[in-house]
Amino acid sequence: MEVLEAIKTRRSIRAYKPDPVPRQAIEKILDACRYAPSWGNTQCWEIAVLAGAPLAELKRGIEQRILAGVPDAPHLSRPGFTPKETGRSGDVLEMMQQAQGIKREDKEKRLQWRATMGRFFDAPAGIILYMEKYLGLTVLMDIGAMMQTIALAAHASGLGTCPEAVVVRYPDLVHQVVGIPESKLLAVGLSLGYPDTNNPVNKFDRPRLPLDSFVLWRGL
Q1: Rounded distance, CA 170 to CA 48, Å?
Q2: How far apart (Å, rounded) are the C-alpha atoms in residues 50 and 57?
Q3: What is the CA radius of gyration of the chain?
Q4: Are 103 and 207 contacting, i.e. CB atoms less than 8 angstroms apart?
Q5: Quick count: other Cβ atoms within 10 Å of Cβ 137?
Q6: What does the CA dihedral 121, 167, 84, 14 come to, rounded to 10 degrees?
């Protein structure tokens, strides 16, 4: 798969086949991702890969907290979105929920959908990206580059991913279950598995802004 094709055809996968992902397949992806860009080649990202019993325990713990209404503890600042940005986010959420037959007024089903997010969308593998707390914003950008590189490499390998903030919003639980030291900042999670291509939630259109709405041209 060519790079531009991978970029345009990658999508966030929210339904997976139950088939386990072999460790060798994940190692191949992460080995290629070692070449993701980082500030001054510092390579300060750290990655935990979960499957089997540890992933099941984390899924269960997050789901229980979501269903019990336990407030999450976002240790990273939430984006200060304006109505313009939240409108786009709301539109895609509506499409996701329509694909699952969830109506806007059905609060219980919407809660269950959030719990599914907390279960890494029932993917057979999950990834947590983290870093030392003292490193700051620059390394968070490097984490973002690594996240996208993993997503593209997985897509090119026939696997799917979905970046997830919700799976790191109960940091005490993640630190405890995964064994990540408290000195680490949990940045983002990724579900990982073979896409269920027949599920409507993996088929809805993903609108994109036109280029000239966000690119400023000078000298060209």
Answers
A1: 16
A2: 10
A3: 18
A4: no
A5: 7
A6: -10
Q: Which residues pair with 130 in a beta bridge?
A: 46, 186
Q: Is 157 helix (H, G, I), strand (E, B) or coil?
A: coil
Report d(CA 79, CA 86) in Å as an integer. Answer: 10
What is the CA angle 83-163-79, rounded to 5?
30
Distance in angstroms (rounded) separating the CA atoms of residues 117 and 140:
22
31 pLDDT band (50/70/90 cuts)? very high
Tokens at residue 8, please? 């345009």
Q: Which token pair is 131?
A: 């870093």
pLDDT digits (tens, 9 = 90+) for 178-220: 999 999 999 999 999 999 999 999 998 888 999 999 999 999 9
- At 49, give phi and psi (nearest 5°): -110, 125
Q: Taking the C-alpha atoms of 217, 148, 59 and 109 in order, what is their torsion angle to the nearest 10 degrees?
A: 40
List, in sequence order, every residue forming a beta bridge with 50; answer none if it has no partner: 126
Determine whether 165 is exposed, middle or buried from the number of CB atoms within 10 Å of its CB (0-12, 13-18, 19+). Answer: middle
Domains of the chain (ranges, CATH numbers)? 15-76+118-201 (3.40.109.10)
Instruction: Yes or no: say if 65 and 173 are a contact pair by the CB < 8 Å rule.
Output: yes
pTM: predicted TM-score of the whole model, two decimal places: 0.93
Distance (Å, whole) CA 75 – CA 91? 26
- CA 120 – CA 166 distance, rounded (Å): 9
When pLDDT is averaged across residues 81-109 and rounded to a whole number, the result is: 79
DSSP 8-state code for residue 204: S
